[in-house]
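JOB MANIFEST
job_type = single_chain_structure
chain_count = 1
residues = 208
[input]
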Amino acid sequence: MDKQHYFITGISTDVGKTIVAAIVAQALKADYWKPIQTGAGEHGDAREVRSLISNDETAIHPESIVLKAPMSPHAAAMLENITLDIKQVKRPETTNSLVIEGAGGLLVPINNKHTIMDLIAPTDKIILVSAGYLGSINHTLLSLEVLKNKGLTCAGIIYNQVTLDGTIEVIEAMTGIPTLGQLEKETNMNSHVISRYAAIMRDKLLAL
């Protein structure tokens, strides 16, 4: 398999990006990297991914920027009296494929000029995480439109706990973006569950 970079972004915050990032990393035995971590503490996203990965090839790379407050990067940086520079974000060097997890949605501010979308490279395979809440269709279509306007293409969508009949079908019909997988509500998200989803989605991910 050619080494690729996969950028995991979401239609909003708390839609399951970290779980999806773990699934993709496990399926492809790829490395994982969170460029900007806010709400830093004992339960950061990198630590969660590490606990969910069960292969021996995935490396967890350190964040470029770590901020204490659980807010958007620009707001968390203001509380620490610093201004973030996008040049601070440097991709780790690796010979492996790399899964990159964004923060919040595409237009979450990093500073007064840049957003999370500015961290996406033209060659990245972009995977959008959608979730089943009121307004999620609108947020999914808006996210796809923003990517399109930036000249970027979404490789596929992973849906997290989308239970309303017709939701996925209408997004597929309106956008033509393929569905890579669907996550059900899990009582205990652990490495065994991640491995199960990774096995289900592996072929579609390899075909991107």
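[summary]
The mean pLDDT is 96.
The helical segments are 17-28, 45-52, 73-79, 136-149, 167-175, 191-206.
exit_status = 0
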